[in-house]
Amino acid sequence: MSHHQDTPILDAIIRFDRLPASGRELEVTPDTEALAATAAILKITTVEAFHATLTAVKLRGGIRVQGRLTARIVQPSVVTFDPVTQDIDEPVDRLFVQGPDKPHNPAPGAEIFVDLEDEDFPDHVDGNEVDLSALLIETLALAIDPYPRLPGESLDTIGIDLADKEEGPFAGLKALKNPDDKDGA
Question: Model-level pTM?
């Protein structure tokens, strides 16, 4: 059952030469093992659900992938470490172009780069297939709350929680400010 290193985690490969003119629908629903692997990559507790609906169409010598990614993830609260569930619903829109990554100065008259935002420069793909796993995992990673907390928890309470213990954040600060003032030194 184990994934080989060269096996993509998500089954989301599109081939340039097999893409019909009308485009292709792609549903990505990883199995339990793939969900666990995705959670490990993202360094979160679990990915409970993950579903992407994508449409790939030929565009300007490349493939444009558009769709939605919905997911439900769980990660520990930064305040109490209790599990926090987050529902994610993100649009996907990316252009993949075959061939090596060339400098972005297309020949006069070439309109590949017209009306694309800077950050949406095409991803250059070597070979004949595009693996959308990285795109989907990256989309999910960018949507994850970096400071997950439960309703009612605030980042301000972290300082209070820590200060109740002997070793508050201030203990460390004191040591930094008065290095000579070490216990028993």
Answer: 0.69
Q: Is 163 in contact with 169 (CB distance < 8 Å)?
A: yes
Give percent helix, percent strand, percent coil of the chain, each to the nearest 5: 25, 30, 45
Q: What are phi and psi of 8, to 5 degrees?
A: -65, 150
Helices (H), the chain: 32-42, 133-143, 156-164, 169-177
Give the Cα separation of 158 and 150 in Å (integer): 13
Distances (CA, A) of 178 to 21, 85, 143, 173, 182: 71, 42, 42, 9, 8
pLDDT of residue 142: 96
Cα–Cα dist 157/135, whole Å: 36
| Of residues 3, 80, 76, 78, the one with CA closest to residue 36 | 3
Q: Would you give the distance in Å from CA 19 to the centre of its chain?
A: 26
Please count the other Cβ atoms lying within 10 Å of the Cβ belonging to residue 151.
5
pLDDT at 176 over 90: no
Residues 93-100, mean pLDDT to the nearest whole number: 86
Cβ atoms 53, 27 nearer than 8 A: yes
Rounded-to-integer distance, Cα 181 and Cα 10, Å: 56
